[in-house]
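Retro notes, item 3 of 5
We never archived the inputs for the 3-methyl-2-oxobutanoic acid complex last cycle. Fixing that now. Sequence and ligand:
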Amino acid sequence: MSKQTAVTSVKPVTSLDIRHSKGDRKLTMLTAYDYSSATLVDECDIDMILVGDSLGMVMLGRDDTISVTMDEMVHHTKAVVRGTKRSLVIADMPFMSYEISVEDALRNAARLFQEGGARAVKLEGGHSVVPQVTALVRSGIPVVGHIGLTPQRVASLGGFKVQGKTAEGANTLLEEAKALEAAGVFCIVLEAIPVPIAARITQELSIPTIGIGAGAECDGQVLVFHDLLGLFDRFVPKFVKQYANLRETAASAISDYKREVEEGSFPAKEHSFAMPEHEKEKFEK
Ligand code: KIV
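Structure as it came back at the time:
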């Protein structure tokens, strides 16, 4: 048998693949913030990996996403890109990295693209970010929109609350979604909005909608890695399904390690290195 290893070519998912998949199949997006989690998500063929600014909460232990910086986003994006072969890596633009001006948005998105290696960026907001989205798309940076509960605006939304519960609120969301589509986003995240609004937006747009707390009629779904795996226990939003309780599994493994070290059963022979007998004898003389 030839010593040559088989070269398996992996075709990376692009923003165009995502845009054109509407109606063909359900899309998957999951967050990841480091190399190891990215390899795992990528190997499971998740379409899109979001380096979310939720890293401020689940990785850095902060109360919200507001204090996440560009440097932190670039740092985590680089690690995720190193662990990804196929999934489309999307980096979140953190609070105040795009709101002040279009120039700021271009400069900061370019950092996530060039230094970080992301292949798309996501920013929160409706009509107010249309000029930024238009400029980014024109300069060749694919953009994901995000409306509904936009965590960067948690202070003015009065908390992590469901959005668009009134007919007026629902119409505003629909108008925002259409404005973002016209500005060129290739998909749009709908967070914490009632099912009928998400369904209507999904019907009326020609780009995919990705829901989180927005019901099953969206074109795809996104969850936070730590929520899906049961690794974050500070709070669990209603829209989260924990597919595992890795916190419990990890805690039991760590306790086993502590017990074995304390009782002297770890490390065992198979975890230790021997010395040639004659060298050992010379050493012991
Ligand atoms: O930062 C994040 O994880 C997000 C998702 C919740 C969509 O924006």
